[in-house]
Design a protein that fits this description.
The complex is a heterodimer of chains A (147) and B (126). By secondary structure, chain A is α+β, with helices and mostly antiparallel strands. Helices cover 52% and strands 16% of the residues of chain A. The radius of gyration of chain A is 17 Å and the shape is elongated. Chain B has helices spanning 5-12, 60-73, 78-82, 86-92, 101-121; strands at residues 25-31, 36-45, 48-57. Classes of the chains: A alpha+beta (147), B alpha+beta (126).
Chain lengths: 147, 126
């Protein structure tokens, strides 16, 4: 019973701020995409530009394998996830991106950023500041990079 | 900790990444299951590896393994590089998790291929 009451209260609290919080997170999500797009060449936003959830931004980096971005950002204290994962020697691009007709090189470089209640504008700017040099460095080592 | 400090250092600061114009030999290998690709360029003098450059498409360990291997074989004779094993490469990054061992295999195979290409173009006894 305590759990039921607690869950009800939690929903009540969240519902009261849902619209406001949704707008705040949407603005941060757009700030992330605009920041990355302005500073990193050859990127694309996966999904509809506006008609999507406030809290996620799935961004593809051409000529870069997503998992290396995940590792590089993890070392900077940033948690993102790869649309593809190389486990036990096999890799599968996100079946959702494939179903959306995302070309394979883009699907392999897809990184999902999740935002939430605790995400701030400073967090977003930090991510953009870290993504730019990381992707540039990774592309230098990539066969189709800018070396 | 999933990766060694040495591996992470090579990943964050790759040595010898990029193209080499007019290389004496070029070789590549691919792990088709996951699309990891490594390509090495060698410059050779008096039968020894003088300079190495690499390009890698793959996960972090692949980049780190290529970087570490490029340092490892610099100064080696071509005959020695032909014997380079995945274990040698793995040791150069202080070990790899089981599900990332293919990174060392691709790198070692690509370096051996670059060495064979070098020998094909310019036999060591000439």
């Amino acid at each position: 019973v305590a759990g039921i009451v607690g869950f009800g209260k939690a929903v009540e609290i969240r519902a009261a701020v849902m619209d406001e919080e949704g707008q705040r997170v949407t603005a941060l999500r757009d700030r992330l995409w605009e920041g990355i797009r302005a500073r990193v060449p050859d990127v694309r936003l996966n999904g509809h530009p506006a008609l999507r959830l406030p809290g996620t931004a799935n961004i593809s980096f051409h000529h870069v394998e997503a998992e290396s971005i995940v590792l590089g950002l993890d070392l900077k204290g940033i948690g993102v996830s790869a649309g593809s994962a190389c486990t036990s020697g096999s890799v599968e691009p996100s079946y959702v991106l494939v179903a959306m007709s995302t070309p394979l090189p883009w699907a392999m470089g897809a990184v999902r950023h999740s935002l939430g209640r605790s995400t701030t504008a400073e967090d977003i700017d930090y991510v953009v500041d870290c993504v730019e040099p990381l992707v540039a460095k990774l592309r230098q080592a990539m066969p189709v990079g800018t070396a | 900790v999933r990766y060694s400090a040495r591996l992470l250092d090579h990943f964050l600061n790759p040595r010898n990444a990029g193209l080499m114009p007019d290389a004496d030999g070029v070789g590549a290998d691919e792990f088709t299951d996951c699309g990891d690709l490594a390509r090495f360029f060698l410059r050779v003098a008096e039968g020894r590896v003088q300079e190495v450059r690499f390009q890698t498409y793959g996960c972090g360990p692949s980049i780190a393994a290529a970087s570490a291997a490029s340092e490892l074989v610099t100064g080696w004779t071509l005959e020695a590089v032909l014997q380079l094993s995945a274990q040698d490469v793995e040791r150069a990054v202080d070990g790899l998790p089981e599900d990332r061992r293919h990174a060392a295999e691709v790198v070692a195979a690509a370096l051996r291929a670059a060495t064979l290409d070098t020998l094909k173009r310019r036999p060591p006894d000439v």
